[in-house]
Amino acid sequence: HVMNGWVKEALPGVDATAVYLSIHNPRNETDLLLSVSTDLAQISEIHEMSMVDNVMKMRRLDSGLSIAPDQFVRLEPGGLHIMLFGLTKSFKVGETYTVTLVFERAGKTSVPVTVRAAAEAAHHHH
C-alpha cells in the first residue's frame, strides 16, 4: 500500500528533485523496495538522510529499503526519499505524474505523485 505520494518542484537550474510517499507493508513477511522507475527522470535512486557528527549526510540505499511486516514507512523531507536525477520534463505545480515502485515480493506498484511548490513543501507538515 503506497499513499500520499508527492514530488517537490525542481528549483530553477537544478536538474534533480525528490519524491516522498508513505508505504505500508500489509504482509506478514518483510518486503524490500528494490528500485524506482519513472520516465520523469533518467536516474531514480532511494536515499536516506542521516545525521553524522551534526552533519546531514545523504546516502544511497544500494540494497533497497527493507519494510517489516505491518510497518509503516514514511519517505519525507529530512529522511528517506527517492531522488530523481536528469529530469526529462519540467514539473508544473499541481500536476500529477506516475512513478513505479519495484518491490521484491509485492512486485511493481504504480504510484501517483503530485507536484508541490518547493516553498510549500518546506512548510508542509501533517
What descriptive keywords fit this protein?
126 residues; mainly beta; ten-stranded mixed sheet; 1 helix; 5% helix; 58% strand
Task: Describe the fold and architecture.
The chain is built from 1 helix and 10 strands. The chain is mainly β and 126 residues long. The longest helix has 6 residues, at 118-123.
What is this entry, summarized?
The protein is mainly beta. It has one helix at residues 118-123, and strands at residues 2-8, 16-24, 31-37, 41-52, 55-60, 65-67, 72-75, 81-87, 96-103, 107-116.
What would the average pLDDT be, to the nearest integer? 91
Large-scale geometry:
globular
β content, as a range? Answer: over 45%
For the report, how would you describe the main beta sheet?
10 strands, mixed
Rg (C-alpha, Å): 14 Å
In DSSP terms (H or I, runs of 4 or more residues), the helix count works out at: 1
Please write out the topology.
Layout: E1 2-8, E2 16-24, E3 31-37, E4 41-52, E5 55-60, E6 65-67, E7 72-75, E8 81-87, E9 96-103, E10 107-116, H1 118-123
Parallel strand pairs: 1-10
Antiparallel strand pairs: 1-2, 2-7, 2-8, 3-6, 3-9, 4-5, 4-8, 9-10
